[in-house]
Amino acid sequence: MHPVIERVTNAIVARSLESRRHYLLRMQRTRELLPPRRTLSCGNLAHGFAACGAQDKQTIRLMQSANLGIVTAFNDMLSAHQPLETYPDFIKTVAREMGSSAQVAGGVPAMCDGVTQGQPGMELSLFSRDVIAMATAVSLSHNLFDGVLCLGVCDKIVPGMLIGALQFGHLPVGFIPAGPMPSGIPNKDKAMVRQRYSQGLASKEELLAAEAASYHSPGTCNFYGTANSNQVLMEMLGVQLPGASFINPDNPLRAALTRETVLRVIAAADVHGAHVPLSAMVTEQSLVNALVGLLATGGSTNHTLHLIAIAHAAGIQLTWQDFDALSQVTPLLVRVYPNGEADVNAFQEAGGMAFLVRELRAAGLLNEDVQTLMGKGLDAMECAPQLNADSKLQWQRHTAPSTRSDVLRPVTSPFDHHGGLRVIHGNLGEGIIKTSAVKEQHRRVQAPCVIFDDQDALAAALQRGELQRDFIAVVRFQGPKANGMPELHQLTPPLGALQDQGFKVALVTDGRMSGASGKVPAAIHMSPEALDGGPLALLRDGDILSLDADAGTLEVLLSAEELASRTPQVLVLGEEEMLLRSTLGRNLFECFRNDTSPARAGASVFGGSVPARD
Which of 365, 397, 429 is the last residue of a domain? Predict the structure, then answer.
């Protein structure tokens, strides 16, 4: 094993010793004192199977085989989740064939960041993760289920489901995706139309035509944002079958993998004596593997929040410093938009997850002592699923080279020798920057800052042509306590256009960018946030900022005495602005904003302190 992988894993284990022990004890006692169905009264049980058919009623009441709880994020507004409509009936059929049963335990909300990007609804996005976690827990609270199947794909949905499912970590859990939509308009062409529109060089009709040609059918959006990063993480954690992530919705292999997941979760249920619970799969070792997978593929910056919150739910203390240390030794093996021009379909065709795992193992970058749905260790994760001549699922060890070296490479010739995520330090706090999509010549910017208190003000200044110069845009009061930490992805096209014109530009914010963070250097998730006394509130227009993404530094070129003498700026809203901030459901999330942890602790209402440095 690579010494840094071993060192970071051991540090996480040591740091988490007491919290992990408490979590595992809680799971053990839950299993012993509250076994599924067995502590329910006759009235409880009768209510639980009242709507079932005769066969399922008999199966559930006998308690001799598994009853699976299905938690679904189906809606037909999200392209990624629309195919899930038919999955519950299929799962029930498979379970019956095995002498078991399955019930839809509940549904969780599933919003789309693509629809709410730049809109008021984006202020609900991050906290929807914690709502989904609670909805998952409510769905499973009836204690009728011996195993769990989570049907979800997109940005906050999968992390939320996993956080909720970890409260039932004494049960086996499997995640079932729907797969990406087929390729549409090339991502580079879409990005160019967006930039041209931001400069007034393309019409709204042209932009809409490009967007509709990109997001065009059922399935996950096929760029490598948070949704597809989720899929990589679930496979690396072992809670999703190897190779299940990037099979298109209409591929016959999709149904075969769903069937196999049902069989695996039934086999892992306590009622059958195997007992392979979720708590045995989500461990310090598997979380490090997931993080390495994220870094090797240039994955979403949103997971610097989500993975920390997931780890906390399992009693594990993960930090941004762990991300940074692992990034230094994890080679970048994948280029998919926004880190390249191809999409995830091209990644799948080039060799996909089996190739990726094979290469990472060869370099000693993965922990081998892990439990997955496929069993102990990582051998199965080097296998790709396929259908044989009888349309039966089989697993084939992947030994072929990459078929596209512009998309997927071996560890011997990576795109970069580090994973492209850095922790940013300096006198403005601590944040995250993703460099995998940023060209080397754009990673260091020193320029006067221009201060904005929301993204609309920056967009308006860009539209007025006031920023045709070198500058670093500071968009503050965008953290979780201020307004729920919305993504600021709509700023990428105009800032990218200025960068293409030769100006040195960058973004600094206590908000988020996106799973599709692109070519403009962006120091994001700055902590503490401005509303919580963070140094961004001390900045003034014209202060010189120095951002060095490679060195991991962000400084305002002022003395400590000058900074200490300044009075923090406060966010002042007029009556009309206050009224508008409570529209479209945002007032219901005030309790979330008041009680959230900082970004570096996962930005969660479930708590989580920032561990001391090792």
Answer: 397
